[in-house]
């Protein structure tokens, strides 16, 4: 892996768009990008978690603590969709389809505030602005990806250490729940999936405390890239052979302790994946 950029506290939702990289620093309260030249962080009053570009090129963000989807104006995230009627907890990752429909995690509880764990859900925001719960009872929903030409949605259930698959119904509802990949079995006992990204040969998974970025297919490990002492948070592709990965340095502390002490620093690394099973 080659280092691409640094300076973040906790880098989530990386997305490539028109040759630029964007990501949200959920702990540092900034939106980072190099779209207008140098890598820089834009301070925000309200911070998104997951990011996604709509088909018309507008950047949207799952506003972590506000139960709404925002749309970037160049200075702030104005309201795009109000989720207050359905969301029960902080918002997490987000993914969209070519028609402008979005899926977003409702995590269900605020771990950072000491709330006890409870199941979350996935919420669908249609292109016409309507909002509905797509599925319930998802345990710590995190990374999201649409695969099979949008026919299947994958969600990383972090505390269950697995990727769960749903069939996307014609009306956008999520049905036929099934396990896609058991990360504890395929990668290791400490693998807890966060961000994910679809690839031609499977799905890339940032396993955080698993200290690896893994490429998996249904119930199969294709390849794994060791990240050493660093914790991979999230990842995204650029449409070619490059994968951007956000990596957290906890200064040798356990993750929870490091985050409480604000001792976590994140950088972006670049992984070249030239063909199946060949990454470096």
Automatic annotation (TrEMBL):
Superkingdom per UniProt: Bacteria
SMP-30/Gluconolactonase/LRE-like region domain location: 10-248
Pfam families: SGL
Gene3D superfamilies: TolB, C-terminal domain (2.120.10.30)
Family matches, as PANTHER family: BLR2277 PROTEIN, LIPOPROTEIN-RELATED
UniProt protein name: SMP-30/gluconolactonase/LRE family protein
